[in-house]
Task: structure prediction
Amino acid sequence: IEICGDIKSANLPIPSKNYAKFDKKLITIASTHDGEEELILANLTPQNGCKFILAPRHPERFSKVAEICQIYAKKHNLSFEKFSENLGLKSDFILLDTLGELINFYAISDTVILGGSFIGGIGGHNPIEIANFGTPIVSGKYFHNQKALYSLVENLQICEANEINVNLQTAKPTKITQICDLEKIINLLKEKI
Result:
């Protein structure tokens, strides 16, 4: 047996579009689940000069999450738009309601709040896709399905929902500490077959 590393770190997705960085700090709230949007947003105080993108994990929830986002935006006097409406990404709060775009926004985010980790029963999501860009990551403590991947990311902030604001202020650029060499795996297979 030879251990070459986690294969998810060998096949990192690349952006399909190159969006320009915004003139405001971009906080992306990624891969959220039912009940998680309300929890995260209840503990997230908008700061001047910040822009938000929220991307729910499941597309069938886009309408419900749009309502949650609109309520939050109105409460905090933020402009709101849905990505699918193609309004030019000018709003303070944008619902990413289209598949295949999240990696493009990871590339220009200033910080990512990684969903699937603030409520129990989900187990977290892949932080490597974000860390590939050096983007700071704030995560909840429920990442039991992703422990191996989390262990490969340096400076990942783990917190309770009520600590999100503090962790957004102290989050540092992330770094993948070990990238799997896919070429090594291919050579091993050729050698053994």
User: Anything to note?
Assistant: Helices lie at 36-42, 62-75, 102-106, 128-131, 147-150, 164-170, 182-192.
